[in-house]
Design goal:
TIM Barrel, alpha/beta, eight-stranded parallel barrel, Alpha-Beta Plaits, 341 residues, homotetramer, four-stranded antiparallel sheet
């Protein structure tokens, strides 16, 4: 249930509604919108009776929520969420490109790649310090040393950075270094981690699980918003199917569905979807044409020597081409004078 | 095995190689290329010894084929196949849009939609006369009456038409009316039908099976080429996955893979992939951005009254927008002056 | 809609109901049950009004059918279908084992294997004469020569035979030789073939498509029953998933679902599901424990020399063990004295 | 690489080999087998040279490991792992049945169900105290109160208990109460949790991820064994496919594959695979027929009132039948006098 307040509702009226909600044992969550406040009723079991609220001063309407998710839904918040990270804005009307190596391997590797991708047009630098690896015997990332290198990259290039957090234990550490916290595919339903991310002071990028429905994905984001962190972006990275010509099958229909159901931005990771360098540019172009709000792309100056996922990393010159081409597509639908869009 | 002839090879030299191949019990298939002839060796069991051919006059090289498919492969024919249908050319460098209703319902319905889609920019008219239906009790199409209406549409609008053939029994009839013969998803491995299509005098569009690998799909096309018909285009229409927010999951990574492995054009059908009107435009844009050679889109002027698949049919005005947007994307990569491409 | 007649309904009363149905433009199909006749109303578009029928003499009830399939459903025919093939009965209460090579290769191969499997307990001999092959260059079966060998096997061993039919063109030929007509996975929705099978005088085994839902599978069977052939058995053979440790993923939950929804027998093909010899016995045991009505198993005396699918064929001695073990499981639930069952 | 010692190898000889391995920067892990010690070499990057070890006293052989997993593999430990929990032994030759409600709801609910399932033949009681839920607004389990109830059940009935652990934070707490620690599907690749489980003093049951390959699953188990905990059992619970007639598709071919590749016991959870009560008994029978080492089954005395997953919970009398039937199947292959097995 959403209680929609009048545009002129006073703070006292809002407070009264919140009190009335909490008196019934529910949780009240005021959600600022364009020109009015909406108050979500959370943690109700079964339907809520609208009558008592409709009669209160300042209340304009009570809307029953038809989806299992609430805070992430457009029903709850019709305006697109825009996330500010340094000078970069992520969300509708913007095309944000994040790029960098799969794993941070050394300061020199990271800085070399960062300078390349910045020159090509990337706005955010990506790189793994803690790596989730199928095998306990594989390279697990540089850990805190990797985080320090990310901080160095930010200092040298001015680019905000994004890196993955793998567990509660290292969350504070990762949060203290990074600008955006990434939650990976394998942790999409690690509910403890989602709850911790709900308390974070930094934006979160939540990757889709490899066999997750959109509803499960949005419910996972709901955990973060429910915890109080509203700066959440989603990341489509392909789902596991019978197909073997790519590592995963990129599900681009998730973009229109997410954009319709939710106000959160949606980014696409074509590198992990494909698992092969030669599909990354076509899939990047397709993602932007389908109105993704951004891309996260793996780039390496020496992919053959990469400690992880080299086969899917673009060469720097390929990334230059990618940026040029996706911006050309984006510009069609977002012209300065608004003609075609 | 492919025997590559010199540019200057004489017809007699080519004939000698063919004879030599057939003497060994294989089938020889000369394949004209840009500036030279290549001769495919088919129906060999196990490897072929190159030595006897390499010594023959006019022979430049012998190439072992590493994929199970031959005639459809780029190894065999490096140049893109271009298919001419009336004034329309399908294949690399062209963007072909086929549109129309799922099923032909009446002359008036077909003509109304045909005029709409032609005005919006469609070059080829689609419409089912024989419909494969899950239930024996569903509308099965108008049959020959539907084919007559298609002929009428061609006559009135000048657009070539494409329609599905379902079996050997009605193949001659369908072939006599249509400009392009469509083989549907459920028949992708109907090998008798593929063999018959190999004898057809009309181009064939082969849709991907709903759980087919790219190799199986190319092998199905190989059946048609092996039969002698080289005018084959492929049609990606999504694969079946656990996903329920769309009817199928469109696998756009198939485009770069098919373009790399094969010389055949690849078309995308976003309507059957999505099964929902509101995903068709984003998926169409994505397909063209990923370098599909064309689209096949369902359009209906009264989708709520459609006898089949109304929920995925675009309204005419949506199709106008679709055409404008996909051409804008296509033009980026195929400018008159060749700048960006 | 099903019109259920009284137990004492006369042929004249039944005829009147049929006439009344046909007067409305529908098709009437009387279905004999245990002690009464039910009349199915087919080919109605939209709901049928029950009132006119309920008032007719001899009519006991009118039942609205809630599933898209009718003739295959238990609603329509509560009793299990039993199919008699020579001395063998297939269906509830029986465990039928069909075995033999993937493809008939020679008379000596077929007879050798047939004697082995008969001695081990197989009741029906399987072997392909027309083989659906992914590649046009693979062994396509012996054709009519293979059918003649099957007839020879029947003559020599007394076992009925089952073989696959691939198209309308060879249907008469296959039907004239075989005892059970198999329709393969790739043809599950070859509707022309299903219609032809509906006219056949022999029982049909319909394999599940590799990405078919149970509803689609039952609807495909509905085509055959609608054509007039009620001797149809279904064959589960696994569905295509992301899994690579077996060729397909055997979906044993289809057994309880089919048994509940339909009166048709369900057979399992563990050989094509697994694609690997070492999974065939465990999956066979599991299938019988889950109450499959039978098994179809590939056996070859020299699997390493088999012209197709040797890797999944059991050695004769493995098949002996399989028969002994599945019968031991079957006997638990079908004891002579009915104790545990 | 595995260094296989002689049967007569002395502790000093073993120690020398360990020292030699560690001198090279690897980790040495002695693995006791039936009559000899094998020493695993872990954390090597690239191949290890066998020569220096083969010449050492007490060394019988050096075996290169061909799979990415080591400690979980049969190559490394040919004998089946047997896990003792109270009086119950889990592993080859035993059939262990775990049963209970999805979630612990109250002491009275838990004790009522526990007495039912014990009387029917269950050896281990299951019940969730911390529940992973798709929605933050769903019942999340009773937490520590639930653990206390589990302890009460053990005290009253003598049955060991199994419950799920969801995060590092509550791991100590869960470990202090439970007899077997369950790691759920969504956490199969929560590597921090796996590492913590590797330090646990209690056996661990690791459920398969909903889109996990067997290799990924065994690698996840490898994390636990690598941490020092060798009492690990695996639990097959179905994979996500396009199928909708069951919640997941139970992949019984995983049983023969796991039994061949690994020495760890494998349990099946038919309740979560099916998601529907009416498939649980057939799938349980199938699992035991395919040689699972045990079952984990949801049972509730009032499933319609269950706070989670009631639709898949068996009624107590159905569970009685399940136990009787699966034991009858198990007994065929494990008779007292060993006749059929």
């Amino acid at each position: 249930m959403l209680i929609v307040m009048n545009k002129q509702a006073t703070p006292e009226q809002i407070e009264s509604v919140v009190t009335e909600i909490e008196k019934r044992g529910y949780v009240a969550r005021p959600i600022p919108g364009g020109d009015r406040i909406t108050i979500g009723i959370l943690h109700n079991q079964g339907p809520v009776d609208a009558a008592p609220f409709l009669g209160m001063p300042g209340v304009s309407d009570a809307i029953s929520v038809t989806k299992p998710y609430k805070l992430v839904s457009r029903e709850c918040k019709p305006d697109d969420t825009l996330i500010q990270v340094g000078d970069v804005v992520i969300g509708n009307g913007h095309l944000t490109i994040m790029a960098g190596p799969c794993a941070i391997e050394s300061e020199s590797q990271a800085l070399t790649i960062a300078r390349h991708v910045k020159a090509a047009g990337a706005q955010i630098f990506r790189g793994g310090a803690f790596k989730p690896r199928t095998s306990p015997y594989s390279f697990q990332g540089l850990g805190e040393k990797g985080l320090e290198i990310l901080a160095k990259v930010r200092e040298e290039t001015g680019m905000p950075v994004i890196t993955e957090v793998m567990d509660d234990e290292t969350f504070d550490l990762v949060e203290s270094y990074t600008d955006i916290i990434q939650i990976g595919t394998r942790n999409m339903q690690n509910f403890s981690l989602l709850r911790r991310a709900g308390k974070a002071q930094k934006p979160v990028m939540l990757k889709r699980g490899m066999a997750a429905t959109i509803e499960e994905w949005l419910m996972a984001a709901e955990y973060i918003l429910e915890g109080g962190n509203t700066d959440v972006m989603l990341c489509e990275r392909g789902v596991r199917t019978f197909v073997s010509h790519s590592r995963n099958t990129l599900d681009l229909s998730s973009i229109p569905v997410v954009r319709k159901q939710s106000h959160l931005p949606i980014i696409v990771d074509p590198s992990h979807a494909a698992g092969r360098r030669d599909q990354v540019i076509p899939l990047s172009r397709a993602s932007v044409a389908a109105e993704a709000h951004g891309l996260m792309v793996e780039v390496h100056h020496e992919p053959d020597k990469a400690l992880s996922d080299g086969a899917q990393s673009l060469y720097p010159e390929q990334f230059v081409r990618l940026c040029r081409e996706v911006h050309a597509i984006f510009d069609i639908f977002h012209p300065a004078d608004g003609e075609l869009a």
